[in-house]
Design a protein that fits this description.
268 residues, alpha/beta, Rossmann fold, 13 strands, globular
């Protein structure tokens, strides 16, 4: 699999706009160009791209393909009014939701206050309108802890349930382990509306030994939700790790046409 640097044609030594230690390692902010010459601003955490935003008029558009695939969940439930994004990064996906879904209130959980500060300073949160900012709630907390507490409050009626939960949290190439095991997924389901949708990105191959991450995530989701589907960003090289968006739900939705069932991918 190509690195983000290879995909976007970054210079070997991009000029830093900011650099500081964070909870997950040295973090840099720098500008770059994609292969079409479009300007991007990058949040690089310990050598890996965590987020990126376009510069100029496209500041709230989605630079990463897997973020664009996340929107399949919204096409399944266009009446959604509450979303939870686990993992803020540069707030790339939350910005998109706020500027393109005017009915949506977005809670964003990010554990590292330094990352939130970088997002506010360098990634155009100040360009959100007053109405959009009113629909954004940035929460500096550990995501599993927040989700467990929120699920309890949702069950007692002390907090509204979410229509959409997006797991954009990663440790290396895997979603945060606690949130992808049955106990963590049970908390997510408790925090969701009965027809709510859970979405995560999993970097994994589709076949062979390197498909183990995807098999484990899909298996855990199948133990919690009624339906699970996988949307690979590419099927050209199924034994090479790539981004795969996994959707899980228990509501009355038809499976997206672009998706595969676990059985079709032999992941059950």
């Amino acid at each position: 699999m190509l690195s983000f640097s290879e995909l976007f044609g970054l210079a070997e030594d991009p000029a830093n706009l900011a650099e500081l230690p964070t909870m997950f390692g040295r973090t840099q902010v720098y500008d770059a160009e994609d292969d079409d010459g479009t300007l991007l601003r990058v949040l690089d955490v310990d050598g890996s791209w965590q987020s990126a935003s376009y510069l100029g008029e496209r500041w709230s558009e989605l630079a990463f393909g897997y973020h664009r695939v996340f929107n399949v969940a919204l096409s399944m439930n266009p009446r959604a009014t509450r979303a939870l994004v686990l993992g803020g990064g540069a707030f790339s996906y939350p910005k998109y939701l706020l500027t393109h879904q005017p009915q949506l209130h977005v809670d964003v959980v990010e554990i590292d206050p330094a990352i939130i500060a970088l997002a506010q300073q360098w990634f155009f949160l100040d360009r959100l309108s007053p109405a959009e900012r009113m629909r954004l709630n940035a929460i500096c907390e550990d995501a599993p802890t927040y989700l467990a507490s929120y699920a309890e409050r949702a069950e007692t009626g002390d907090a509204p349930r979410y229509d959409l939960i997006v797991n954009d949290l990663f440790a290396a190439e895997m979603p945060t382990a606690a949130l992808m095991k049955p106990a963590g997924l049970a908390q997510a389901k408790r925090a969701l509306e009965p027809d709510g949708i859970y979405v995560a990105n999993v970097v994994s191959a589709l076949k062979g030994k390197r498909a183990k991450p995807l098999r484990e995530v899909v298996g855990a989701l199948m133990s919690t939700f009624s339906d699970v589907r996988v949307i690979p960003l590419s099927t050209d090289e199924p034994r090479v790790p790539d981004n795969n968006v996994v959707l899980a739900w228990s509501g009355p939705y038809a499976a997206p046409g672009s998706s595969f069932s676990p059985e079709e991918l032999a992941l059950a």
